[in-house]
Amino acid sequence: MAILINPPADYSPPIKGVTNEKTSELPTSNGILNSVHSGAAPNLPSTACPFLSGISHSPEDPIAAKPIEEFANILQNNKVLASTGCTPQFCQAGRATHIDEPRNGENRPLETIKAEASGFLWEMWKDGVYTEDQYNHRLEEVLQKLDADAVQGTVWINGKKTPGITATWTQNSEELLHGLRLAWKNSRKCIMRSHYLELRLCDLRHVKTSAGMIAAVIEHTEKAYNDGKIQPTGATEPHYEKRNFVAYLQPDGTILGDPSNVELTTDIMALGWKPPQPKTQWDILPLVAMAENDAPALGELPEKLRELIDIRHPQYETAFESLGLKWYRFPALSRLGFDIGGVQYTAAPFVGWYMDAEIGVRNLADGSRYDALFRVAQAIGLDMESYRQREEYKEVESLEDLPDHEQLLWMSRAQNELNYAVRYSFIVAGVSCSGTLAASNDYCRFDEEHVRVHGYRLNADPYWLAPPQGSIVPIWHRGGAPNYQPKPMITRHRFDPVKTWVRGGRKRGTWVSIGEGGAIVSAAFGKSYRACSDVFQVCKELAAPSMVSRTGMTVPKALSMSVNPNIYIHYCSTGTTAVTLAEKLHQRVQKQLKIPCTIGNLNTLQIPSLPRNSTLLLLVSTTGTGDIPANGKSFSAQLDTLREKYSKGNNLSHINVAIFGVGDVGYAATFNGAAKIIESFWKDVGAKFVKGGVVMTDVSVEAMPLSAFNRWWRNLKATLSGDVSADTAPEMESPEDAFAAQSRMLQTFRKSMLLSKYSSHMENDRIATITLDLLGATYRPMSHLRILPTNHPSKVNRTLHMLGIADGQQPVPFATKGLQPSWSEFLREFVDLEGEFKELTWLERGGFHIKRRADATNGQPEREGGGGYPVFDMLERLTELKGGEAVATSDALRLDICLAMPLLRPRSFSVASAAPSSSSISTVDLLIKIHPHGRFSSTFLSKHTPASALLISPIPSFPGQPLLSLHNKPILAVATGSGVAPLQSLLQYRLHATRAANIAGERSPFADSQITLIVGLKKGDCWIVRDVIGGEAMALGLVEALVVVPSNGGKLRVQDCLIGAGGEESLRERMREGWAYVCGSKAMVRGVCERLSAIMNEDVVEAMGKRYIQEVF
């Protein structure tokens, strides 16, 4: 039911008009208002939307003719179309709220009102409400009335106020009812509008006072509720309900209630409302009404309408009861209006019923609302402690710490069960509530019938219409409807009446209750809080003055004065790891320390504006080139200038800094390169580092490095909260932590088999091809594989003997729960026997003494630690010293020795092959550069023969992924050495697709995406180009040009060969639309970037954005 109360209201300007429509042109998808026009299909103007501008209007083109015919039918059947906000350059169809949607509260020009009145009355005739004679008579009557009542005033034209003439007219009850129904039918955000003809009208335009409005709303809302069998509905939009739960801002900055209503609660309290005591998160705000030239009135619905429905679940009765979730029985929209025939109705409560997903999937579940999903997940079985019993999850503290697939599992289950519980609870309570599937099917049938009868689809906003459950709901598959907005329509207010009243500093509100016989009883409020400063004062009264910040958040008393209570978190990230950890850190600072805290990417960090004693918490990922990612690039560009500014006397010693680096040791040359750049800068400018606050992590060991992050956080928390003194040592990684992380990493590895090794010359500094059988696993072209260079069985067995271990299958006596590899497994896969000991303190416990000698060349003593002492070689030497006996005679000493060994790290390689899409082949080629004495290529690979087992782990994301789906843009590809591998993979992928297309008699899918390939290789490795690229890729048109730059005495480099026959301008033209892929050493990648930037006269990385891809090997 719609309850209409229409005082001639005036908030600030007179409330008469609404948008910026024009009346002189036909409506198109760019939102030009149409006055009454003939039934003939109009010609579309040349300024139509981008979609139409690209369509031929030829009737012979059936694809183009269909949307043109549909638009013509829309124009033919809708005489008044409001602006959609679109222009030929910009479409707003995908926006949740269009920036120039019509609003209630703007006087409009007389001619616009006449046009809309005429269009509405024409629709009354078209829909059979009026006969033709009635229509003509009423039209003449209304137009004469508008002319007679016209007055000079301020009107809105094209979004701006201007002097003009305006007027209004009074609609009869029949016109008003039909206008309301059409407005609901035209509401593009409502899924329930198939019931529009059932809408009932309660015409209360005669009510002129605020108190009278409250009394009328209370009386007629009770009728609409109808003991739970709610009589026909209105659109439901959750942020504009007249029934809202409170949102109390607590002194510690938290919110009790529905966070979306903080501002509304503050506004209503400013009118004088006093919350019930004790406060709860389920308190319902009072009704508020304000008539013209009258103070606001406040009141409450009867108790039976305020009674909440407890959300219960038949399968989880006790658990859901303990959650204490509730919701009110029906939605009632209030801060909306109706725009009907040029007349605006500004006070129009709209009563309806709920669809289950509005409550279960949005209101109770959204993180910005009641955020109940985690608690619901716990109610249906999520047990974080059971996760922590598993070694790979022992560090998790919350659901957000789990891998994304585990999070999605529980959030999806919780969402579904909560939605089910809502529907079940409303059914048990006997209150109307639509199911998602039923509502979706109902709308689909309604829309299909509309197309059948009228020849065009209903206007619809998929963002709002499609229920949040996604593709399992039929409406999700219907796609976007034409973007148009007919009138009559439901509109938002231009001016919020409550805010306007409070800003005006007028008299406080009046409380209205309904006495016996319907008598209105009023009572004035006492003191009211009218401004944010008053709300802050309340906070100050609830907490000690020394404990309150200006935002009302408490600050720990123990906080040292050397640390500013404002903390700044900044991140830069190539993926999601640093961002996720930054958000987690932000939550922990706010919830656990209750310190004001801001978060943003590194580009938003403004050092000159930082207050003294600020604390910066930086989470830094590294690009493949070892550089700072794009969301920190602007900051990076300032480092030299800032270093010069703050290194000379005026340093930044008053700034506290902590850094958490996110790197991958599989890319050893660039490991945590960005974090090291950032750390070096802050050292140079004299910043103070938080104790234990610089950490460099390795995602090859732990994809989401929670162990290190939690340890880093505990150090930060102790420092920031003042719980540690200056000489307290920070919490460090325990000796076993790294091996526990290694154990978790090993769970991601699987066996593969070495099939072959090939090179024209298996010599040092040459490139070899190895082929692996993945034993059924699959991989993607251009992706990466990690290979663990396990220790050779002969060395493992020898080490077991040297450590005095008779049975290698016995478990290593680790104290860490769940960490129990056998001695053989540990020595094979956990530690690097070719690496150097991390430290040598175990020697004295073993009865050994190593005399430190001076270096023969420079007289400097040997460095402390284990540097220079390879594990296997040293154990061999110590065994010799003991006459062949075991070095260790106890488990404790053996464990000490093993804990001092370096971790065995995987190596990462780009695949150099691609399997046909229809093939079940699981072999993969890798290009390996042979390094003299190299840990992988020499020590490991040389000892493996065909049929040997290798441990591999695919890396899910890789830089070149966008190139696989690129079909219509050219590619400039530059690679050197083994960096040719991903390009070899890409070309094989394209060759397979092109061969298949040729067999089918079709054009290659990559015919419009040719590759210009520039390759730098040593002379002995040029066989790669011959064998792999050969003539076929050239012959099939996949490679437009191939430049091979062999090693040469003239030091000609690949970056010197970027400009082809077309010259610089030709290259610039290609780069404006094309893509670039550069892969090789760090120096080569940087050199190509600098050369291309010089050619393009701008930073090529910034100019091309995601179209410029770099990889460093």
Automatic annotation (TrEMBL):
Residues 567-717 form the Flavodoxin-like domain. Keywords: Calmodulin-binding, FAD, Flavoprotein, FMN, Heme, Iron, Metal-binding, Oxidoreductase. SUPFAM superfamilies: Ferredoxin reductase-like, C-terminal NADP-linked domain (SSF52343), Flavoproteins (SSF52218), Nitric oxide (NO) synthase oxygenase domain (SSF56512), Riboflavin synthase domain-like (SSF63380). The keyword Endoplasmic reticulum does not apply. Its cofactor is FMN; FAD. It comes from the Eukaryota. The keyword Iron applies. One of its GO terms (molecular function) is calmodulin binding. GO terms for biological process: nitric oxide biosynthetic process. Its EC number is 1.14.13.39. Gene3D superfamilies: 3.40.50.360, Nitric Oxide Synthase, Chain A, domain 1, Nitric Oxide Synthase, Chain A, domain 3, Nitric Oxide Synthase,Heme Domain,Chain A domain 2, Nucleotide-binding domain of ferredoxin-NADP reductase (FNR) module. Belongs to the NOS family. This is nitric-oxide synthase (NADPH). It comes from Glutinoglossum americanum. The lineage of its organism: Eukaryota, Fungi, Dikarya, Ascomycota, Pezizomycotina.
